[in-house]
Amino acid sequence: RSVGIIGAPFSRGQPRGGVEQGPDLIRAAGLLHRLEQQGCAVKDYGNLTFEEMVDDELVGRVKSVRAVGSANQRLSKAVQSVKRDGHTAVVLGGDHSLAIGSIHGHAMAVGELSVVWVDAHADINTPVTTPTGNIHGQPVSFLLRELQSKIPVLPNFSWIKPCVSAKDLVYIGLRDLDPAEHYILKLLGVKAFSMSEVDQFGVARVMEETCAYLSEKVKKPIHLSYDIDAIDPSVTPATGTPAVGGLTYREGVYITEHLCQTGRTLIDHMTLCAEVLSKS
Ligand code: DIR
Ligand code: MN
Ligand code: MN
Ligand code: MN
Predict the structure, then answer these.
(1) What is the pTM of this model?
(2) Ligand 1 atom with the shortest distance to the CA of 229
């Protein structure tokens, strides 16, 4: 198994600085060494560079539209080239708006995906429903085929092809949803395990059900999108959007262990991508 690492030092999907240090801090914490210890061949593709965007004015209520659109186009291309080189792609963020380019690039390279979204939030506000204007709360809306009629035209977003179906998405860890997000999840019938369900069933059963649900028909490659705020803020206090009552450290790690094990039995049917939000 070989892993290609892409650093995406980007923070414009939300207002706070610090997240752009994520890729370097995660490397400094020893990610490459840990992967090698586990028998992975690792190729580090380094950090992407993103252009400074001047005059990036509000579009409707949405902030930093042009910067987020162009950064994600760049990231999508980078993911596609890592996939072409035959690696499992691991994207180090950066704020979670990067999920747009990460998932788009992955889907362009391998076709239909399953997406496991580990997060306190559903990140499925549309540019119209967003209460904050921050695009890190909206990435799923740009990716789902079912929501395309609800997405207005935005500068630097015309390259995006919606590439995920609602039935191929599973949420884990939800506990802080906006009213419109509740409505959208209900309307589309999206599979979701909130924290309440993690409490009720335990993380092991949640993962078994997640994998059973996603492999009901065809087994698609799994894309893991991991927001650090899914973990309880007592463990990850540096997140920009802490939400109490989150996953324990072990529950958070177990999710990745379970998916990894699935990948082995499916033999290369799985790809992991992690967008990690980190504040130093
Ligand atoms: C909120 C916060 N739902 C928004 N979203 C966050 O801005 O749309 N996602 N923090 O990770
Ligand atoms: Mn976030
Ligand atoms: Mn979140
Ligand atoms: Mn998120």
Answers:
(1) 0.94
(2) 11
